[in-house]
Amino acid sequence: MIASSYHHTVNVLQAAAHSARGPFDRPEWFDLLARSEAPPLFALTSDGENAVALPLARANGRLEALQNWYTFSWRPIGSDCPALLEAAARDLRNHSHRVTMWPVPGEDKSADRVTAAFREAGWSVHCEECDHNHVLEVDGRSFAQYWQERPGPMRTTLKRKAKKVSVTILDRFDAASWEAYEAIYNESWKPTEGAPNLLRRFAEAEGAAGRIRLGIARAEDVPVAAQFWTVENGTAYIHKLAHRESAKPLSAGATLSAAMFRQVIDEDKVQWIDFGTGNDPYKRDWMEIDRPRYRIDCLDPAQPRAWPALAKRALAPFLPAR
């Protein structure tokens, strides 16, 4: 017998998250989000042996994926059983007229599975690309082999400037180094950090688990660039990077990136490097594959509250482009 239940605490995810594939599938990640985002609603569907969980939140008059700007991907947690996911989607019609999920990956068929399940459950589903995910498949290469394939101007610049900075890479959380990262970020080209306390708690937990790679580049003993990566299950994740604008002529950020790539390729022996979401042009110099991320917007035609959005969706192809 398949049954669905709804919960506000992350403990329920333990029933579905036994095979988390990365940092954004773990209960610990959703626990961090639950403390800083909209109140969570964890939809759990089980047949007694297997379970699937949808980490959601009530926001903007609907149910939305429990995620934020640090999230590389969002997908159902647990079993891939189509019947379980369809049952979860069908029961959600009793709890909202609209469910919107993003950024859902396509390379593992998550977007296809979610879209199919919600359609079978009676939702009107619109799936569209909403973001980019740039990754590198190492494919057995050494760092030297990988580096030889980078753009010539990039390699020439680093050859000229690499000696002007020194690099330290830590595999543990260090409070002084994290404070240096925050100071560098505040003097960088980056926008104001969204949830710095959440990010620090995440870094502390990753450090305690031995997954962190925290890099600092210094010029004349002054920290000028910093990067926060993690490594697990054969993948390196690039979470944050920044350099002081005043140090831009030193190419300290690129020098630090090269050192971090060398660390995870030659020492950690990763198979993939994941640069997260966003389509910044510089990512194409370092990465080789551009994977789409999807937004899946589901409206229940049986509920009058969904009708205005359904009408707007139906008219969209006939309206002039903005």
UniProtKB/TrEMBL annotation:
Gene3D superfamilies: 3.40.630.30. Residues 161-284 form the BioF2-like acetyltransferase domain. It comes from the Bacteria. It holds the Pfam family Acetyltransf_6. InterPro entries: Acyl_CoA_acyltransferase (IPR016181), BioF2-like_GNAT_dom (IPR038740). This is BioF2-like acetyltransferase domain-containing protein.
